[in-house]
Batch of 2 targets.
Target 1
Amino acid sequence: MLAIPLPFVAALLLFITAVLLRYRYPQTRQKPFWFIMLCALMITVVGLRWTVDIALFRFLQPVLGASVPVTAWLCFTGGHRSKPNTHLHWLGPVAVLVGSFFYEHLWGGAIDILLISLYLGYGCLLLKSSFNFPEHVRLSDVSNVLLAERVAGFALLFSALVDGTISFDILQLNAQHIDLILSISYLVLIPAIVGTVIVVSTSTSLIQKQNQQQS
């Protein structure tokens, strides 16, 4: 029964992390706080989904999962000068939301393929961005931020692999190993991505505040 208690413990720890980050670093932007809260909510829904299996949780799980790579990408863009078109980046989660409404009329693996594509795409974007100098980061923290960005990119790519493994297990093996896969993946990947977001948020807050004062 490894998958039942651990997701809720992880969600509680993420919630505590978000609150501590908000109060200890009040100068940081709200994106990291809401990202961690999103991850905590997603892990909670995953735990409920595989515990009570209610239709609402089956609906929410892919929508929240699709929001994670987009939100992670938007958190990391604060360290770079370029500003992405936020609205365009939410097309992926919106597509998953629409697909969830019409899930019965779609091929069973359509949403899974879309989710895997989102994690692959944003993982590659983070890796590509990690080779560009982050102008809004303190010089002493540049190496840490770039490393964190690459770790987050690899984490998203690995998450795409995990999602593919889960889909295969459900379609071919009757979900015999789903509990073990979910327990290992979410408890390893989510804390890794959250940690990298915290590194970037605490490294960019001071330099952005200085730039605002100078302007």
Note: Residues 209-215 have pLDDT under 50 and may be disordered.
Target 2
Amino acid sequence: AELFESELFGYEKGAFTGAIRMKPGKFEAAGEGTIFLDEIGLVPFHLQSKLLNVLQERSFERVGGNEPIAMKARVIAATNANLEQCVENGTFRRDLYYRLNVYPIIMPSLRERKEDIPLLAEHFALRAAGEMGKVPVTFTEAALEILKNHTWPGNIRELENCIERLTIIASGTAITPERLASC
């Protein structure tokens, strides 16, 4: 919460102890591109009004500044929290919810789209191998069935971490059900 404003809006030299130079924030750095606000549901309630103001006014000021800076970026926000429920619970501002909810995209959890798991596993295997300079793992049909039947409480990040772990310990091999025990 302490870094929220300075990270998103930037700050002027001398705005606080340690601010030895001006630093642009994420909104400024995004320019006319896109800024992605992940886990928007975790933004502390007292800071949500500042975010709402930027979205409504399309401008902001750096911390310690008084010059308005135009916000030209498109904003995409994501969360795994149910924001409607957060609004009802009083932990998320209703006006901010409506400002963000212009075009909602509901992405079902991984356990609700098991047919995607083989393709995602292959993608993560290729990416992990490329990043690590290793040979990608492959999957036996039996291993894919186990992956598809897992509940994935950590959703896609859990699958990605599992595949990275397999790449580290079993580079270039066909993953069998026995190998999946390391996930």
Note: The longest strand covers residues 34-37.
